[in-house]
Amino acid sequence: MTENPLAEGLSLRRTPDPCALVIFGASGDLTHKKLMPALYSLAVRRLLSPRFAIVGVARTEETDDGFREDMKQAVQRHGRDEFRQDVWDGLAAAMRYVATDFSDEGGESKLHDLVDELDGEHDLGGNRVYYLAVPPPAFPTIVEALGKRKSDQGWTRLIVEKPFGHDLASAQHLTALLREHFAENEIFRIDHYLGKETVQNMLALRFANGIFEPIWNRQFIDHVQITVAESIGIEGRAGYYEQAGAIRDIFQNHLLQLLALTAMEPPIDFTAESVRNEKVKVLKSIHTPGPRSVVRGQYGRGFVEGEEVPAYREEQGVASDSMTETFVAAKLYVDNWRWADTPFYVRMGKRLARRETTIAIQFKRAPHPPFAETSADELRPNVLLVHVQPDEGVSLAIGAKVPGQGMTIRTVHMDFLYGGAFRTGMPEAYERLILDALLGDATLFTRADEIDEQWLLVDTIVAAWQRDRPAFPNYAAGTWGPPSSDDLLRRDGRSWRRH
Ligand code: BG6
Q1: CA 272–ligand 1 middle distance (angstroms)
Q2: What is the residue-level pLDDT of the chain in tens, covering all 499 positions?
Q3: Which of 59, 198, 237, 293 is found 20 to 30 A from 120 (Cα to Cα)?
Q4: Cα–Cα distance for residue pair 344/331, rounded to 1 Å
Q5: What residues does ligand 1 touch, defined as CB less than 6 Å away?
Q6: Distance, CA 121 to ligand 1 centroid (Å)?
Q7: Which atom of ligand 1 is the closest one to the Cα of 232?
């Protein structure tokens, strides 16, 4: 356990080594909304090394002072902690900026000279973390430039943001490029869902409790439902989203990772290799779904949280005849001893009725309900519901007797809510992930073989889609997706969890 009283929510086994963190894409949204606020929160909890420098790199001309001011405002706007000038001053003291797009040799040298200088001033031991928060086309130039200058002094790590490729071929190509200069254990591929507390809690729930594991299989579980629903649209990211769609944006990474954590075998320990070995086995065992088992949708106009919103095709930068899907639902099978014939129904989409990420484990019905007066409707099967977000927690639906005469059974919920059980606030996913990368712990980062398996599945689904053109839009914004998504379960005599 940590001895730092402020380190609640993030257990600090050891302090990260001194190092320089170089952020490529420092003028971008991610840096403003996630990375800098996360670094600030780590600083508040004194989880960073006192010898820690941050270098922002972007194309825009900017002074060091201008960059610091910009980052300070980002922290004030997007941070989860109250702003404290003393903490900020500590973090900003070794914060610098370099303007370059790396296509010129000069830019590369400028950056290295600056980092060397900071190293001398703050005694950073040659340790470097490079964070690629730039669009993928910029990766090759940067990676090659970094690779050429890699020094033997200290350690070097590379954090790579999604999207990791566009398909299997491009992902393998990117891995090959990275591997020319970096070893696998120096590469940290981000899937920010793995940094979410509730996602890690799936591991705690399963493997720290004796009661769940014996029933966590096809004998007791009827099916699993995983929902990643967003009420927001594409937020001005048409350039990216038109190419990606829901299948590449969410299914390929966040959704499949949630599924892998739900279905994996217990790892022998919680080292990066053991956990990832088990996850990759699940990903390898996912049966390629047939065309009838995958549904896609695109939103039309509608109302979300009381506000009228445009159709996807009316969003700025989206083609008026776009065939990009903003919703995917699928029935997946994990072909192994634990899960054979147990469907995993998954759905994800933009502009759905509300923001909700849940994993619902639906157990089989009681074999023989002896209560004559109870209608079948009131005796619903047990469901273990993991609320990934919002209202983080876990809830178990059980049948309970309604007080009074007779034997009427109703479904009630035993709830564990993070907010009620722990007095600490929830750390942001990026706090955990940045800290782990600084510590060199890759458990919550995706390995190359996992990414390959994820793309293999997506590529086969996308290839099957080339053959037909669904009548888009096929769901109104603010609903739960197209009717065919409900049909997917109805055919099996099941339905999506009631909302
Ligand atoms: C990102 C996707 O990876 O995850 C976005 O690119 C999506 O489209 C986001 O909105 C969702 O993340 P969260 O943490 O808000 O569920």
Answers
A1: 24
A2: 334 444 444 555 678 999 999 999 999 999 999 999 999 999 999 999 999 999 999 999 999 999 999 999 999 999 999 999 999 999 999 999 999 877 776 778 889 999 999 999 999 999 999 999 998 888 888 999 898 888 788 999 999 999 999 999 999 999 999 999 999 999 999 999 999 989 999 999 999 999 999 999 999 999 999 999 999 999 999 999 999 999 999 999 999 999 999 999 999 999 999 999 999 999 999 999 999 999 999 999 999 989 999 999 999 999 999 999 999 999 999 999 999 999 999 999 999 999 999 999 999 988 877 776 665 556 789 999 999 989 889 999 998 888 988 888 888 999 998 888 887 788 999 999 999 999 999 999 999 999 999 999 999 999 999 988 899 999 999 999 999 999 999 999 999 997 5
A3: 59
A4: 6
A5: 162, 230, 249
A6: 38
A7: 10
Q: Are 259 and 358 in contact (CB under 8 A)?
A: no
Residue with tokens 């007791």: 220
Give catalytic residue positions. Answer: 254
Strand order in the sheet with 19-24: 95-99, 52-58, 19-24, 128-132, 156-160, 187-189
Residue identifier of the C-alpha nearest atom 15 of ligand 1: 230
Amino acid letter at 204? A
Nearest-atom index, ligand 1, CA of 228: 16
